TrEMBL record:
Transmembrane regions: 74-98, 105-125, 156-183, 189-210, 256-272, 279-300, 306-330
Entries under Pfam families matching the protein: PMT_2
Region (Disordered): 376-396
Keywords assigned by UniProt, alphabetized: Glycosyltransferase, Membrane, Signal, Transferase, Transmembrane, Transmembrane helix
Domain Glycosyltransferase RgtA/B/C/D-like: 56-205
Any one GO MF annotation of this record: glycosyltransferase activity
Taxonomic placement: Bacteria, Bacillati, Actinomycetota, Actinomycetes, Kitasatosporales
Organism of provenance: Streptomyces atratus
Entry keyword annotation includes Cytoplasm: no
Domain of life where this protein originates: Bacteria
Signal sequence coordinates: 1-17
Regions of compositional bias (Polar residues) in chain numbering: 384-396
Protein name: Dolichyl-phosphate-mannose-protein mannosyltransferase
Length: 396
C-alpha cells in the first residue's frame, strides 16, 4: 500500500513539475547551473553572479546541477529536472518512514504514516512545484538514523549522514546526535560510521575547502537565510512590536544560539533514548524549523516527514494546515511575499508544529531506554526498537 501510494505521489509531483513553471527558484537554479558550467562546481563560490542571489548550496548540489544541465541539453526541460531530485526523495522517504514507524508501532500505523508522507500536501507543493534540495537532505538524515540503529549498518549510515549535509547544510544539527549514538554503540560501530562520514565529506567538501575556503564559509556555512518577516520567532516579534534591535540580533548572530539549542536538544534526547534515534532526528529537524529566524515556503519540508515519524495525527495536522499555507503562498504574487491569509495560516501552523514537537519529545521520553533483555548501547551493541506495540502512535 505504501509503495503504491509513494508511486502515485511521485507521478503527481512529476506531472506538476512537467506542467507548471514553478516559483522563481526554478529560474534561479537554471542560472546557477549555467554559471557552474562556466566556472565549475568548485570555483562557483568565488564568482560574482549578476542577476542571481548568493550561491549558498553545499558542494554536492553543484555537481547535481552540472548533471541536470547536461540532461537538459538532451531536450528535457530544466524546470522538470530541477524538481525531480526532491520528488524522487519523497518516494523513498515514504518507504523509509514506513520502515521506521513499523519498528516502533503497529503495521497499520506505519502504513498510515508512510501513505501520509506520500500524500502530504506540504511535500507535494514543495517538491513537485518548488523543487530545491530540502527533501533530499531530510531523507538522507532520516536514512542515516535508520541505518544506524535499526539496520545496524554504521558505514552506510555515515555515508547517508555525509550526503545529507552535502546537498543542504541544515541537517548538520543532527550530526552530533548521530555521532553520540555511534560512539555509545562501541568502537567498531563508531569507527565504521566515522569512516564513512569522513571519507565522503573529504571527497565532496575537500576540493572546495582547499580551493575557496573563505567563499564557502561565507556563502554556505554562515548563511542565515533571507530577511523576510514571514515565519516563527521573527514574525511574532514583529507582530508584538518588539524592538528592532532584538529582531536584528536574532536574525544575525543570534540565530546561531537557536542552532545550538537544536543541537543540544538532539544530543540530550539521543543520550536518553538512543534506540529512538530516527524519532530524535525528526524532532530535531522540526525544532530547527520552529526556531528558524529565516522563512521560505520550501523550509516547511523540514518537519513534514519527521512529524509522521512522531505519529500519524501529528504529521497529518501539520501537513494539512501547512500544505494549505504552501499552496496559497505559491498562488500569490510571490513565494516570498505572503498575503495576510497566508501569514495567519503560518502563525497557526507554527503553533501546530510546536504541539507536534511537544508530543514527539513526550513520546521519546516515554519509550523504554532499551528493549527488554538488551544491554545499553554503551556496552557495545546498538539497541533495536520493538517491532510491534499495541497503539497506533510511532513511539510509546
Amino acid at each position: 500500500m505504501v509503495l503504491i501510494a509513494a508511486a502515485a505521489g511521485l507521478v503527481t509531483r512529476m506531472l506538476i513539475a512537467a506542467n507548471m513553471p514553478g516559483p522563481a527558484d526554478v529560474r534561479i537554479f537554471h542560472g546557477f547551473a549555467k554559471a557552474i558550467v562556466r566556472y565549475g562546481p568548485i570555483r562557483i563560490y568565488e564568482q560574482p553572479l549578476p542577476g542571481l542571489p548568493v550561491y549558498n548550496h553545499p558542494p554536492l548540489a553543484g555537481w547535481m546541477l552540472l548533471g541536470l544541465n547536461e540532461l537538459s541539453e538532451l531536450g528535457i526541460p530544466f524546470g522538470t529536472l530541477i524538481r525531480s531530485p526532491a520528488s524522487i526523495a519523497d518516494f523513498f522517504c515514504a518507504l523509509l518512514v514506513f520502515e521506521i514507524v513499523r519498528r516502533r508501532a503497529s503495521t497499520g500505523a506505519a502504513v498510515a504514516c508512510g501513505v501520509g508522507v506520500a500524500a502530504s500536501p506540504v511535500l507535494i507543493a514543495t517538491s513537485g512545484y518548488h523543487g530545491n534540495t530540502d527533501a533530499v537532505a531530510i531523507t538522507f538524515a532520516l536514512a542515516a538514523a535508520h541505518l544506524l540503529v535499526d539496520r545496524k549498518a554504521p558505514l552506510a549510515a555515515g555515508l547517508a549522514a555525509a550526503l545529507s549535509i552535502s546537498v543542504k547544510f541544515i541537517p548538520v544539527v543532527v550530526i552530533p546526535a548521530l555521532l553520540l549514538v555511534a560512539l555509545r554503540a562501541g568502537r567498531p560501530v563508531f569507527v565504521r560510521f566515522s569512516a564513512g562520514f569522513a571519507a565522503l565529506v573529504a571527497l565532496v567538501w575537500g576540493p572546495v575547502l582547499v580551493t575557496v575556503p573563505e567563499s564557502l564559509k561565507e556563502n554556505v556555512l554562515e548563511y542565515a537565510g533571507g530577511g523576510y518577516r514571514l515565519w516563527g520567532l521573527v514574525r511574532f516579534a514583529d507582530l508584538f512590536g518588539l524592538p528592532q534591535s532584538f529582531i536584528t540580533f536574532i536574525e544575525g548572530n543570534g540565530h546561531f544560539l537557536f542552532v545550538l539549542a537544536c543541537v543540544a536538544a538532539g544530543v540530550w534526547l539521543a543520550l536518553l533514548r538512543p534506540a529512538q534515534l530516527p524519532v530524535v532526528v525528526a524532532v530535531t529537524m522540526s525544532l530547527l524549523l520552529l526556531l528558524s529566524t529565516a522563512s521560505a515556503l520550501q523550509y516547511l519540508t523540514w518537519a513534514a516527514a519527521g512529524l509522521f515519524v512522531v505519529g500519524f495525527w501529528e504529521g497529518a495536522a501539520y501537513s494539512c494546515l501547512l500544505g494549505l499555507t504552501a499552496v496559497l503562498g505559491y498562488r500569490g504574487r510571490s513565494a516570498v511575499h505572503w498575503s495576510e491569509t497566508v501569514l495567519h495560516l503560518a502563525e497557526a501552523g507554527w503553533v501546530v508544529l510546536a504541539a507536534g514537537l511537544v508530543s514527539g519529545i513526550r513520546k521519546i521520553l516515554a519509550a523504554r531506554p532499551f528493549p527488554p533483555g538488551q544491554p545499553p548501547a554503551g556496552c557495545g551493541t546498538l539497541t533495536a526498537p520493538r517491532t510491534s506495540q499495541p497503539t497506533g502512535s510511532a513511539v510509546n
